[in-house]
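User: Show me a protein chain along with its predicted structure.
Assistant: Here is one chain, sequence first, then structure tokens.
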Amino acid sequence: MREQSRQTRQQIFDACSKILREEGLSNLTLEAVADAAGISKGGLLYHFPTKKELIEAVFDYYNNIFETRLQELADAEGDEPGAWLRAYTKASIEQSADPDNASVYASLFAAEERYVSAHQLMRQKYDKWQREVESCGIDPTLATLARLAVDGLWFSEIHQYAPPDRERREKILNLILEMTYSPELQETS
């Protein structure tokens, strides 16, 4: 992809993020995105011919950011049992603790109802992540329990459904991480 095209796409993603953060999904129109990106509607349509393609691209964009951070954390964790799950935990909590990210993700998840293809993209990601969870070197059932706890914490933060205060979130996070280090949870071959 040419540099100018890459820059334009980044402008479009930045514009979508701003609209999702400040105004929500209902105001994410092609016209609003083009205006916020400082390009013509035709320029936007050149990159994303339909709103559906734009929404899918925004999902991919944010998933790529998450997965890049997840990989950085996984590399830092090394090859110890539970390392990938610890990285997933840390990346998820980082993401949900950032209010800007939280509002964007809340809007994107609302889009799943209208854009089935975006919902399918998320299911594929979660299927992939679950395979990683189950093969991270600790008991797959307990690893899944930890992932579900992380996802529940993420969900409560993103949607502001009675999220724990900062101190309690830290305690919960530490308990989840502690679980991933417990030798009794390691798989026996």
